[in-house]
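One chain given next:
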Amino acid sequence: MKTPISQPAPVDTSSLGRAIVSLRRIQGWSQKDLAGKILKEDGQSITPQYLNDIEHDRRTPSSAHMVHQFATVLGVNPDVLYLLARRVPDDIAQSGASTQQIEKAFVAFRKEIKGR
């Protein structure tokens, strides 16, 4: 009899903190492990307490750099974390898009998310 292949646990996308917890657990890391891998702009790692605050949705990553650090280390597209952090990526925010382009993009996004 074959042993069933276990599927990775689904990522909880109900909040940024819950997504980070899910992704961290998939990797089998403790908070201390993950905190040591996330580097601030000055090259220093974040503290486990700071990570704990993020995971409990008391704080959000303080910069785009930090969002990218989490995404890279956890192996997820940064856009997913930007959405959950309720932030707009710098390349989009600084694109100079017109109001019509922004509205059109959000209509398309809503259609995709809602499946219509």
